[in-house]
Automatic annotation (TrEMBL):
Signal peptide: 1-25
Compositionally biased intervals (Low complexity): 867-884
Any single Gene Ontology cellular-component annotation: intercalated disc
Keyword set, alphabetical order: Calcium, Cell adhesion, Cell junction, Cell membrane, Cleavage on pair of basic residues, Glycoprotein, Membrane, Metal-binding, Repeat, Signal, Transmembrane, Transmembrane helix
Regions crossing the membrane: 719-750
Membrane topology: Single-pass type I membrane protein
The protein's name: Cadherin 2
Subcellular location: Cell junction, Adherens junction; Cell junction, Desmosome; Cell membrane, Sarcolemma; Cell membrane
Length: 910
C-alpha cells in the first residue's frame, strides 16, 4: 500500500520501479502493457496543499515511450503527470475526499487502446492495522531487477572476458522521500548456486566520498539508495560491483553500474536580474526591439523541467493601450507591438515578466517574476514655441553689449537636451547686424543683445523678426508652427553725444619761425545731436611747447610763440596739440581732436664742428684729424659745408692746415714737423649751403702729446686728456698725506696711553696691606680680569729656571702659566734697595715690549718673596740695621707715587 505523509510520497520510487520493470521485463515472457495493479490503496494526509504529490501509478508501456497519456476522473481535485505521479489540484481535507474510487485511465494515441485502474483514497486517521489488511503490495516490491555477472571461464585463473553487452544505467529520481533504504536492483552471480558469495560495490557514493549513499546487502546482493539524491548536485554515479567467495577470492570480474539521477521539477526559474532597465525612442514603429530578459533554471534543460517560457503579466501604465509590448516566449526578447509611444505623455513603462518551466505549462510548471522598466527616450517631435507674438524692449543709443529683451519659449521635449535647447536667429529687421540673440543656457531664453552702436539720429525704432529652432532638426514629418516665430520691437533712446572733430587728426604745414599772434587754422567740432539745440566751446588740452591758443567760441587757432622745428617737442618735423570741444547738454559731453603741425625747415641754425676734441702726436708721421659739421637744419639748409681756418690768431694758419675731403668732411693736420705738447684750440669757420648761407666759427680742442712707438699718447698724457689737471693730482696727493698723518698720530696716541697705564703705582699707602687688599680707583682697566690677583706669584725671580720665566722675571695675569710654582732656596743676604727700582723698570720695559700683551691695561704681577726670602719686606726697611746709611732721595725721581716712600725713608730721623 502507498502511504503518503505530509509533503511526501513514493511517487518517484514507484516511477523508477515501473520504468525499470517495463523497460527490462523478466526473462523471455512477452511484455503486456497495463497498470501494475487493478486497485491502488493510498493513505493521504488529513490536509493536502495545492500542488503536493500524493501517489503514483505504475504503468508498463512495453517500450511505447510517450505515446501513452494519463487522465484522471476528478481533474478538479487531482492532476496526473506523464510519469504517473498524481498531484493535488487544490487544497484538500479528508472530509472532502471523494467517496467513489478515483479512476486513472491510460490511452495509447496510436492504437487507441485504453487501460483503467482504481485508486482508493484512505485518510491517515485509520489505524495502521486496518491499513495493512487492505493494503496492496508496494510499488517497489521485492521483485527487483537482477543484474547477473557475465559468464566467464571456469578455470581457476581470473581472466576478464570480452563483454558483448553493456549493462543499462539505473535511473533513480531525485528528492525521493523514502522510506530508506530503498532497493534499486539485485546483483547476482551464477556461482552462488554451488557456493556462498559476498557482494560489494565501490566508487563515489559507496566507499568513496560522498560515502553512504548506496549500500548493498552482501548476501542477497540487493543494491539500495540510503538517502535522497539531488541531480543538481550530482547528476550520476559510477559504481563497480564485486563478487567474492567466503575466503575473499574474486569469483567474478567486476562490473560497472551507472546510476543516473532522474531530474524532477524542484527548481524555480531565477532571473539574472530582478529589475531590468531598457529604453525605446518615442514614436518607434511596431516591431522595434527594446531589450532581452533572461532567467535560468537549475533543472535539466533537456527535459521539460528546465525548458522556460516567458510572458508579460502586466503593463503599467496601460496607455495608450494595455499591450504596447510583447515578449518572445523562448528568448525573452521584448519588442513593441503598438504605435503611440509618446514620452511627453508616458515617459516610462513598467512590465512584470514571468518565466515558467515545464515549457510554460501553467498547471505543472514553476514560475518566477521580474520587473522590466522601459524608459521612453525623447526625440525632437516638439518644436519650440514663443510665449508671445511680440516682445518689446528699449536701449540708449551708442550702447553695446546691452540686453534689450528676453524671449521666452516653451518646448515639451526633455529639458536640457539638444531636442529642447533653443537656437534663435534674426530673420528680418536688422540688415546691418546690430543685434544678436544668444541663448541663456539655464532658462533657454533668447537674449536680444546690441552688438553694434545704434544712432538715434539715424533710426529711432527697430522691428526684428526672430525664429526659434532646436539644436537638432525636428523629427521626420513634423513642421515648425507659426508660434516658432516672433516679433521684437525695440525703441532707441536719445542721449547727449560727444562732439567730434572732423578730420581727426587735422594736419597743416607751416614754415618754422612763424611769429606770435599768427593765425594758423580753424579747428571746429560737430555735434551729432541734431535734435538738441546746443552750443560748443573749445579749450586747449595739450600743448607741450605752449605755442598755440584757441578761440573758445570759433575754434580759431593762433600762435603765442615762435614755432621752431628744432625744438625737442617736435618729432620728425611734426608737432601735436590736442583740443577739447564741450557741448552745453545735461550732462555735458566732450570730445577731443588732435592738430598736427608739419614744420617746414628754414636755414636758422649755423653749423658747428664735430668732434670738438681730438689728440695728435708732437711729431706727426703723418698725423691728421678728420672732422665734420653738425647742423640742426635739414638739407638743403645743411651740407655740403665749407671749412676754413680763422685768420686769428696768426699762429693758427702757421701751425695748422685744413683740407676738405668731401662736402661733409675735412681733415686738420700739423703744418710743421714738431709742436710742443699741450692743449690747443683751433678756430674753424664752417659755412652751410642754405639759400641764405650761415657761417659759424667753432673751436676744435686738440691735445698735442708725446706718443709711444705705436703712435698713441702716453699714460700720463691720457690722464691729462681725461681731464685730470695738475691741481687735481696735487689735491689727491695732499689728501693721501693727511690721511697717513692721522693714522700715525692715532698709533702714537695709543702707544702712549698703554705706557701710562703700565706705569701706574704698584705700591699704596703703608697702612693698607697689599697682601690683603688691593684697592684701585679711577681706572677703567680691563674689567674683572684686573681684580684677579694671584699673590702667590710674587716670588723672588732669581731662582726661576731660564725656560720657565720671562727674561726679566715678570708675567701678566692674562698669560697662562706654563709650569708649577717652583720652590726657592733661602738666601742669606738681602739685595741692595736700589735693585728694586731696577727690577721694576726692567719689568715695565719688558711689559711694554711684550707682543702677547692684551690691548687693555692689566696688572703686572711680580714674584712674591715668600716667607723664606732673603730679602726683607718693605715694612721692615725702617728697622734694618743698614737703613740709616741708605739714600732714598732717588725715589723722588720715580714720580708722585714714590714720594711717600721718599718722605718716609729719605728724610731725617724725626
Amino acid at each position: 500500500m502507498y502511504s503518503l505523509h505530509e509533503g511526501s510520497g513514493l511517487l518517484l520510487l514507484a516511477v523508477l520501479a515501473g520504468l525499470q520493470i517495463a523497460a527490462e521485463g523478466r526473462g523471455t515472457t512477452p511484455c503486456r502493457p497495463g497498470f501494475s495493479e487493478d486497485v491502488y490503496k493510498v493513505v493521504v494526509p488529513d490536509i493536502t496543499e495545492k500542488g503536493q504529490p500524493l501517489f503514483n501509478v505504475r504503468f508498463l508501456d512495453c517500450g511505447r515511450g510517450g505515446l501513452v497519456r494519463f487522465e484522471c476522473s476528478n481533474p478538479s481535485d487531482f492532476r496526473i503527470e506523464a510519469d504517473g505521479v498524481v498531484y493535488a489540484a487544490r487544497s484538500l481535507q479528508h472530509s472532502t475526499l471523494p467517496v467513489s474510487p478515483l479512476l486513472i485511465k491510460a490511452s495509447d494515441s496510436t492504437t487507441l487502446q485504453q487501460w483503467v485502474t482504481q485508486v482508493r483514497l484512505m485518510p491517515s486517521t485509520q489505524s495502521s492495522q486496518q491499513v495493512q489488511e487492505v493494503a496492496v503490495p508496494p510499488v517497489m516490491s521485492k521483485d527487483l531487477k537482477e543484474i547477473v555477472f557475465p559468464s566467464r571461464n571456469t578455470d581457476s585463473q581470473l581472466k576478464r572476458m570480452k563483454r558483448d553487452w553493456v549493462i543499462p544505467p539505473i535511473n533513480v529520481p531525485e528528492n525521493s522521500r523514502g522510506p530508506f533504504p530503498q532497493e534499486l536492483v539485485r546483483i547476482r552471480s551464477d556461482h552462488d548456486k554451488n557456493r556462498s558469495l559476498r557482494y560489494s560495490v565501490t566508487g563515489p557514493g559507496a566507499d568513496q566520498p560522498p560515502t553512504g549513499i548506496f549500500i548493498i546487502d552482501p548476501i542477497s546482493g540487493e543494491l539500495s539508495v540510503n538517502k535522497p539524491l539531488d541531480r543538481e548536485h550530482i547528476p550520476s554515479f559510477h559504481l563497480r560491483a564485486h563478487a567474492v567467495d567466503l575466503n575473499g577470492n574474486q569469483v567474478e570480474n567486476p562490473i560497472d553500474i551507472v546510476i543516473n539521477v532522474i531530474d524532477m521539477n524542484d527548481n524555480r526559474p531565477e532571473f539574472t536580474h530582478q529589475i531590468w532597465n531598457g529604453s525605446v525612442p518615442e514614436g518607434s514603429k511596431p516591431g522595434t526591439f527594446v531589450m532581452t530578459v533572461t532567467s535560468i533554471d537549475k533543472d535539466d534543460p533537456k527535459t521539460a523541467n528546465g525548458m522556460l517560457r516567458y510572458k508579460i503579466l502586466s503593463q503599467n501604465p496601460e496607455s495608450p493601450t494595455s499591450n504596447m509590448f510583447t515578449i518572445n516566449n523562448k528568448t525573452g526578447g521584448i519588442i513593441t507591438v503598438a504605435a503611440g509611444l509618446d514620452r511627453e505623455k508616458v515617459p516610462q513603462y513598467t512590465l512584470i515578466i514571468q518565466a515558467t518551466d515545464m515549457e510554460g505549462n501553467p498547471m505543472y510548471g514553476l514560475s518566477n517574476t521580474a520587473t522590466a522598466v522601459i524608459r521612453v527616450t525623447d526625440i525632437n517631435d516638439n518644436p519650440p514655441e514663443f510665449t508671445a507674438e511680440t516682445f518689446f524692449g528699449e536701449v540708449p543709443e551708442n550702447r553695446v553689449n546691452v540686453i534689450v529683451a528676453n524671449l521666452t519659449v516653451t518646448d515639451k521635449d526633455q529639458p536640457n537636451t539638444p531636442a529642447w535647447n533653443a537656437v534663435y536667429k534674426i530673420t528680418g529687421g536688422d540688415p546691418t547686424g546690430r543685434f544678436s540673440v544668444p541663448t541663456d543656457p539655464t532658462t533657454n531664453e533668447g537674449l536680444v543683445t546690441v552688438v553694434k552702436p545704434i544712432d538715434y539720429e539715424i533710426s529711432r525704432t527697430y522691428v526684428l523678426t526672430v525664429e526659434a529652432k532646436n539644436e537638432i532638426p525636428l523629427a521626420r514629418g513634423i513642421h515648425s508652427p507659426r508660434q516658432s516665430t516672433a516679433t521684437v520691437s525695440i525703441r532707441v533712446i536719445d542721449v547727449n553725444e560727444s562732439p567730434y572733430f572732423e578730420p581727426n587728426p587735422k594736419l597743416i604745414k607751416l614754415e618754422e619761425g612763424m611769429m606770435p599772434e599768427s593765425t594758423l587754422t580753424t579747428f571746429t567740432a560737430q555735434d551729432p545731436d541734431r535734435f538738441m539745440q546746443q552750443t560748443i566751446r573749445y579749450s586747449k588740452l595739450s600743448d607741450p611747447a605752449n605755442w598755440l591758443r584757441i578761440d573758445p567760441n570759433t575754434g580759431r587757432i593762433s600762435t603765442i610763440a615762435i614755432l621752431d622745428r628744432e625744438s625737442p617737442f617736435v618729432k620728425n618735423s611734426l608737432y601735436n596739440a590736442t583740443f577739447l570741444a564741450s557741448d552745453s547738454g545735461v550732462p555735458p559731453a566732450s570730445g577731443t581732436g588732435t592738430l598736427q603741425i608739419y614744420l617746414l625747415d628754414i636755414n636758422d641754425n649755423a653749423p658747428r664742428v664735430f668732434p670738438q676734441e681730438a689728440e695728435i702726436c708732437e711729431k706727426p708721421e703723418p698725423n691728421a684729424i678728420n672732422i665734420t659739421a653738425l647742423d640742426g637744419d635739414l638739407n638743403p639748409n645743411a651740407g655740403p659745408f665749407a671749412f676754413e681756418l680763422a685768420h686769428r690768431p696768426s699762429d693758427v694758419r702757421r701751425n695748422w692746415t685744413i683740407t676738405r675731403i668731401s662736402g661733409d668732411y675735412a681733415q686738420v693736420s700739423l703744418k710743421i714737423g714738431f709742436l710742443e705738447s699741450g692743449i690747443y684750440e683751433i678756430p674753424i669757420i664752417i659755412t652751410d649751403s642754405g639759400n641764405l648761407p650761415m657761417s659759424n666759427t667753432s673751436y676744435l680742442r686738440i691735445k698735442v702729446c708725446q706718443c709711444d712707438i705705436n703712435g698713441d699718447c702716453t699714460d700720463q698724457q691720457h690722464i691729462i686728456a681725461a681731464g685730470l689737471g695738475t691741481g687735481a693730482i696735487i689735491s689727491i696727493l695732499l689728501c693721501i698725506i693727511i690721511l697717513l698723518i692721522l693714522v700715525l698720530l692715532f698709533v702714537v696716541w695709543m702707544k702712549r696711553r698703554d705706557k701710562e697705564r703700565q706705569a701706574k703705582q704698584l705700591l699704596i699707602d703703608p697702612e693698607d696691606d697689599v697682601r690683603d687688599n688691593i684697592l684701585k680707583y679711577d681706572e677703567e682697566g680691563g674689567g674683572e680680569e684686573d681684580q684677579d690677583y694671584d699673590l702667590s706669584q710674587l716670588q723672588q725671580p732669581d731662582t726661576l729656571e731660564p725656560d720657565a720665566i720671562k727674561p726679566v722675571g715678570i708675567r701678566r695675569l692674562d698669560e697662562r702659566p706654563l709650569h708649577p710654582e717652583p720652590q726657592y732656596p733661602m738666601r742669606s743676604a738681602a739685595p741692595h734697595p736700589g735693585d728694586i727700582g731696577d727690577f721694576i723698570n726692567e719689568g715695565l720695559k719688558a711689559a711694554d715690549n711684550d707682543p702677547t700683551a692684551p690691548p687693555y691695561d692689566s696688572l703686572l704681577v711680580f714674584d712674591y718673596e715668600g716667607s723664606g726670602s732673603t730679602a726683607g719686606s718693605l715694612s721692615s726697611l725702617n728697622s734694618s740695621s743698614s737703613g740709616g746709611d741708605q739714600d732714598y732721595d732717588y725715589l723722588n725721581d720715580w714720580g708722585p707715587r714714590f714720594r711717600k716712600l721718599a718722605d718716609m725713608y729719605g728724610g731725617s730721623d724725626d
